[in-house]
Amino acid sequence: MRRVNWLGLAFLSPALVMVALFFLLPVVLTGFFAFTNMSTATGVTGGEYLLNSATLRSLADDGLPQDTLEKLASGGYRVDAEGLAALAAATTPATAAEMERLHGGAEFTDRRDMERALKDLRDNAIRKTRERKEAAELFKRSILNERFADEAQFAAALADTGIAPSHAAQVTAGAYTGWVWTTENVSLLFALPSTLRYAANTALYVTLTLAFSVGFGLFLAITTFYLPKGQATTFRAIWFLPRILPPVLYVMMWRWFTWDTGFLATFSGYFGASPKNWMLDTSYHAWTAVVLINGFVGSSMGMIIFSSAIRAIPSSMLLASEVDGASRWQQVRWIILPQLSWPILFITCYQTLSLLTSFEYILLATDGGPGRSTEVWSLAAYHTALNNYGGNLEYGLGAAFALVLVVMGILASLLYFRLFNFKRLITTPLIEG
Amino acid sequence: MTNLRALLATTALVACGTAAAARDITIDVWAGGSNDADSYRWEAIELAADILEREYAIQGEELNITIEAKRDFGGWDEFKQSVTLAAEAGTAPAIVVTSHLDIAPWSQAGYIVPVEDYLDLDSWPLNDIYPNLMEIAAYDGVQWGLPQDAESRPFFFWKDTMKGIGYSDAEIDALPAKVASGDYTLRNVLEDAKKAVELGLVEEGYGFYPRVSNGPDYAQFYQSFGGQLQDPETGKLVLDKAAMEEMYQFFVDAVAAGVTRKNHIGTEWSQWYNEVANGKAALWHGGTWHYARYTGKEGNEDFFGTIQFSLIPSGNDTGRANTITHPLVYLMTDQQDDMIEDVAAQLIKIASEPRMNSLHAIKSAHLGITRQQSNVELYSGNRWADEATTRLLGTANAQPNHLQYGAFSETMWKGLEAAWTGVQTPAEAVAAVEAELKAKLGDELIVR
């Protein structure tokens, strides 16, 4: 028995690894990112310590006293004894002596001015740009725009500026360039007016698309069931196209069909209608397009599942009902539909979950437009985390969007399990018990 | 200090005529948003490598530089993701050609290193680059990159249509000056566009034919109505509610007047280019680089005979005629081997020389970056480069390098889209924008 168990696990292991890698890990990472302020600017792998004028500005907004700010900002470059000694060590004492003669005691706020001062050296000229830049660094007394790899180095540099130790922690936190833990993303989701809209859009999208794809899938399965075999196969093959076409191609055909230079507009033009964009004219048009585009994809899958389920119904039942004089509609109502309840449950569960997280067809068709009226939650997550003209991608906030979807998905699954009495489905049949 | 000593020692060795060992260096160059016409973004680096190798050879050092260029990314998004992921993995390309807006986040993340660590900004050709362009490649007082090209986003008029609604040739010639002085405003744009539609010169929706997606162009219209993007005092971003609402209203009015299509946003770029290059639209706006596209792929053989261009007209008394330049920049990423950064810096410096940059400017119909380009015959002899530089570049400003500008720009665009498509009124859209920006930007936003 024990050996068999191990064998089972061994056979399962590739699947387990895949599930862990492609399903569990992303969920865990989403949960993790959602509670960080991670963005392009913070990087993913960690941060350093950097004070620049932007940091000083936000420290000032956070109430850091003016004198502390001045101490942090001051310094610049100073040709002092310490710097000259370092220059003497790095080059020659003569160079340092000439520098002292030319600029001893001088202060520069700008790096460029310091470099210009070094260019004044004549007898001991430093000719190479890189060398002059390194020499300039010897005189730097400010910690502005200097990256420190770890906190200890930064703390040491901070102590040299002479700010009150009580402010050091605040400055250090402000200077950290990496990501930090935060619950701000979640509160931002509640605070942003747009998120309520996205949630409502998502509910509308899932409900309408689900209803369409299950309903139309059933319709296709039942109607093709009553067709002669050859015709049925042909029709099913045609209706299966949306599912197997590459999404980009499929949506492009929709665009050709609906756009103002497309088929619908041209055709209606023959009847005197002015051309309009049937996909994006109003939000109603956009919703119709979104539901149909996704609905046809969903219904082709439903059609296949339902068709197979119908064929599994013993033909004797249908034949018997015909003997009893049942009409087609009665057959559908009293024999076929009752026996399809499990496939319908399956398709409903499966599609709710996949619709919640799928956005590729919407992205390609309306990209959430017009005016964000078809922007669903998952598309908003994508736009936030991975699409930004200005370049600063908000991974943390995007993950918070996605985390909500994970929670919704789990809740929906539990609800469906209960609603459709999933336990009964997976209990061992009495005959085997 | 060991570095400095080592450098000095190397220099001494070279000075003594002792040949140092040959070094092979591979420099990766990734260029975002580039097509065939932009090939000098990396080919200039290849040319520069040849020159640099010779310079080293003269000094007795053997340096072999291999340039590996990559330009085929799906779009800006994919390009930016590729660069940031590569930087996280420590395999970032040495040189990146990208938008100047990336400087703020990438410098904060430590992906890029300042060019001023490697180059003497007082030396030629860097001291010849227009100061406003250098400023655009700087952030927080640090020179992070060098401008790779310059451009600007003009307003265009189709001359035949303008004549059709009653403009004389002289009046058309005077348009750029009238726009610049504020005598021709966006109100006139609407009037003229409406006339063109009513007279049947263009189809409905083609009177004013704007850009089809978000971009710096729309910030121009915000400026036209007196909007300011960044507060020069504090460096914070600014939401001017009145200017934003008037700008939204302008597009709503354009839709209501039938001169702009309600669902214009999202139109295929290829369709858009073809239409504007061949007179299907009366007035529109675009970029200086469109010249190459109109006269090349789209087959407009008489650009100057068919198209007039100017600044973006002002919208009201507080606004100004303006144009935004959105230069791409050469940035250098943080590398394990300091030598690679050093060589990369030398290469982008050489590639910025007037003659080199003119190759790119003329081939891709961009504008030059250095003053001396007016003395390069290839550049000065090109009518488009010459006229566009004088008419537009002088007053051009850029979008701010600010960590949150991306969020600002996206939100402004969302609001415009909602108003334009009639989902919200301009006032509602501005209120939504304000709420969203306040929540996202907090202290970094000034609302007026």
Question: Any overview of this molecule?
Answer:
The complex is a heterodimer of chains A (433) and B (448). Chain A has a two-stranded antiparallel ribbon with strand order 1-4. In chain A, strands 2-3 form a two-stranded antiparallel sheet. Chain A is built from 22 helices and 4 strands. In chain A, helix 11 runs antiparallel to helix 18 (341-357). With 433 residues, chain A is mostly helical. The longest helix of chain A has 33 residues, at 2-34. With 448 residues, chain B is an alpha/beta fold. Chain B has 2 domains: 4-150 and 326-395, 3-Layer(aba) Sandwich (D-Maltodextrin-Binding Protein, domain 2); 155-324 and 404-447, 3-Layer(aba) Sandwich (D-Maltodextrin-Binding Protein, domain 2), CATH 3.40.190. Helix content of chain B is 46%, strand content 12%. Chain B is built from 19 helices and 14 strands. In chain B, helix 10 (241-256) runs antiparallel to helix 19 (426-441). The longest helix of chain B has 19 residues, at 40-58. Chain B is globular. The relative contact order of chain B is 0.16. Residues 7-19 of chain B have low confidence and may be disordered. Classes of the chains: A mainly alpha (433), B alpha/beta (448). The interface between A and B is large, with 68 and 73 residues.
In short:
The complex is a heterodimer of chains A (433) and B (448). With 433 residues, chain A is mainly α. In chain A, 69% of the residues lie in helices and 2% in strands.
Which characteristics define this entry?
heterodimer; A: 433 residues; mainly alpha; two-stranded antiparallel ribbon; 4 strands; B: 448 residues; alpha/beta; D-Maltodextrin-Binding Protein, domain 2; six-stranded mixed β-sheet; four-stranded mixed β-sheet
